Automatic annotation (TrEMBL):
Gene3D superfamilies, per the entry: 3.40.50.2300
Keyword Secreted: no
Keywords: Phosphoprotein
Protein name: Two-component system, chemotaxis family, response regulator CheY
Keyword Repeat among record annotations: no
InterPro entries: Bact_response_regulator (IPR050595), CheY-like_superfamily (IPR011006), Sig_transdc_resp-reg_receiver (IPR001789)
Residue ranges annotated for the Response regulatory domain, each copy included: 6-120
A Pfam family recorded for this sequence: Response_reg
Species of origin: Paraglaciecola agarilytica NO2
Amino acid sequence: MDKMRPILVVDDVEAICTFICTVLQGNGYVHVDIAHDSAEVMSRVCRKKYQLILMDIKLPKVDGLELLSILHEEIPDAKIVMCSADTSEETINLAYEIGAVGFLEKPVTPMSLMSLLERL
């Protein structure tokens, strides 16, 4: 992953966004933005091209999987990684079928996050 290209972290829990941003910035990723719901996500992706979107499945208003489907149609070349404590095979498979390029189990650890980024 290009450390100079922007990343968007999407979660309705501020502490999770802060933690992931801190890990990314501590590993040299310069441009990390945060969004807490679907409206913020859509507003941000209309203004900036993100190399990666890390997104929670459980979001207010529009579910993360539904938002993944919308984003996959609107910006098909975007790399989107879903994050969730729900690691059922059904949920993970659905995320990949819709268009996710990766899946992170919550709670996200610095090691799991950086390992995933190395594979993308």
